[in-house]
Amino acid sequence: MKNTSLVKKVLPLLLFTGLLWSCDDEFSTVGSDIVGNDDLNLNTYTVQNLTAYSKATGTVQANGLPVNSLGVINNPVFGKTVVSFVTQLQFVTGNNPTVDIVDPTITKVELTVPYFSKIKNTNAEGNRTFTLDSLYGDQGKIKLGIYESGYYLRDFDPSTNFEEAQKHYSDLYQEINSAKGLLLNDADDVAQNNEFFFDSSEVIIYEETEEGEPAIKERQAPQMKIELNKDFFQQKIFNAPPGQMDNNNTFANYFKGLFFQVEDIGQGDHLMQMDFSQGKITIYYHTVINEEEREGTLVLNLQGNTVSLVESQFSSGYENALASSDSTIGDEKIYIKGSEGSLAYIDLFGDTDAEGNSAELEQLRDLAESENWLINEANLVFYVDKTQMDNVPYVPTRLYLFNADNSVPLTDYTIDGTTAPGFTKLNKYVFGGILHKENNKGVYYKIRITNHLKNLLKNKQAKNVKLGLAVTENINMSAMAVIKDQTSLPEDSPYRYVPVTSVMNPLGTVLYGNNTTDADKKLKLEILYTKP
Questions:
Q1: Is residue 235 part of a domain?
Q2: CB 379 within 8 Å of CB 446
Q3: How far apart, in whole angstroms, are the C-alpha atoms of residue 479 and residue 86?
Q4: C-alpha to C-alpha distance for 368 and 364, rounded to whole angstroms
Q5: Which of 37, 58, 328, 481 lies most in the core, judged by the most C-beta atoms within 10 Å?
């Protein structure tokens, strides 16, 4: 969830706290000797050989994401991204809940999905105003069609003899669209379909008093709240053929789910990050039992298998940058974009041999050993290309650096237990990757790899692995998704996986690489060390 004002308020405190954490255990053991001791020298070593380059991900695994995008975003650097969504439905109890309902008549069907939001203020009457988190383009509108899905999202992969879970990819839009059924959000209110927007208004539920006047029954936070076609659900749910709704397994094959189709109508950016698993369909019905009229509800959860569906129209500049990327000498600029986009890869110390070693690394190992270096801190610093990015309204708040050779987190990430209570996206702030801003514009990202570097220098058998850099939607997650096209990739390729949190986030940024003539903006690895 994006919250720029929040980052402004909290980041100075976090940076100060990070300084307190910046010295590792080894440094702390000699701290008492540093004060007033002229025999110790504090030094900085800047690595001379780094290689950084961009690589397109292509289609990515996009099923079961904890957060999904929905909407349209136009980026002047990267191009346009349109994200739709498909989900299965499940009974709350797991079994058919209609068996004890006698001759029901549906009066209303309502779809609700809560938004990520925060209370802005509350007035004297108790009315609240909210701000929406992770909304890009609060003045835009999109066309939203909610259809019955005709595409079955199976649980297991038949190509593995049904022994492995089925992977569903981001390029399923055409197949889902061609199999869609009836349009369900067909109300006359265009705000629920043809001119949909994510409304930040408080939802107020009224009830009628004995005096016949409406009174406030409940106040709810902002949410997607859309009426669906009640005749369809009357037929599909209450008139279902026998055996089709015995449990969630048979139900998923019978009613394959909902398809949230997004179309760009040229009314600006409008994209939201949402947790659809918190959504539900509430069916309100009327029945008569023993001549007594009764009202009831039946709830279907938006749960089961889900897929994020991405349509990308990349800019020519972005496509050309990826096509000309050079993994041998590195790039002048590196392009990082989430969803179906690109990652950057970094080779520390430049060219390496089969064991991952390089001449500079070997020299540095010998020097550190002979001079008895104590490594205090090591940081990778990525400078933003302000020429391109200052005109982009939405930029990634955070980047994630990982071990690309093994598709696992770095030690510095794993051992960082720092938290920012109430602001979980700023957790692990010592590890870093948070965008540093000046005058509300991004300047650089700094990522701490102290323990990773110490291991490289102290353990001469340690492999100098390739590092991957990606956009992240949630720094607390380190799971990996599969890149679809692996036909030409060997089993040990570092390009087979992409962080799940990168798939969740459609934003991108341009950074200076190693192969730039601007020495002040060039990618840096700075090592701070102490030697007797």
A1: yes
A2: yes
A3: 22
A4: 6
A5: 481
Two structure tokens written together for 114: 């809560």
Residues 242 and 102 in one domain: yes
Q: What is the mean pLDDT of residues 37-56?
A: 85
CB 263 within 8 A of CB 84: no
Q: What is the dihedral of CA 90, 168, 228, 226, to 10 degrees?
A: 100
Write out pLDDT tens, residues 208-262. Answer: 877 777 889 999 999 999 999 999 999 999 999 999 999 999 999 999 999 999 9
| pLDDT of residue 118 exceeding 80 | yes
Rounded to 5 degrees, what angle do the CA atoms 362, 366, 368 make? 115
In the predicted structure, residue 23 carries a pLDDT above the cut 80: no
Residue 73 domain-assigned? no
Give me 430's structure tokens: 């010592």
Residue 237 is classified by DSSP as I
Give the range of the structural domain holding residue 12, as residue numbers without chain letter. 4-60+315-531
- Return the SS3 of 345: strand
Is 29 a residue whose pLDDT tops 50? Answer: no
For residues 241 and 122, membership in a common domain is answered with yes
Q: Are residues 402 and 468 in contact, defined by beta-carbon separation less than 8 angstroms?
A: yes
Torsion angle of the four alpha carbons 155, 159, 163, 164, in this order, in degrees rounded to the nearest 10 = -60
- The residues that bridge with 482 in the sheet, in sequence order, are 497
Residue 320 and residue 297 share a domain: no
How many Cα neighbours within 13 Å face the side chain of 319? 7
Lowest mean pLDDT among 6-15, 100-109, 199-208, 487-496: 6-15
Q: Is residue 394 part of a domain?
A: yes
- Calpha distance 252→90 (Å, rounded): 8
Answer yes or no: do 49 and 146 share one domain.
Answer: no
Confidence of residue 14 (pLDDT cuts 50, 70, 90): very low
Residue 437's DSSP bridge partners are 442
Is the pLDDT reported for residue 9 higher than 80?
no
Length of the chain as a residue count? 532
293, amino acid identity: E
Name which residue leads in pLDDT, 265 or 38. Answer: 265
Query: Do 333 and 294 share a domain, yes or no?
Result: no
Residues 120, 218 within the same domain: yes
Classify residue 72: in a domain, yes or no: no
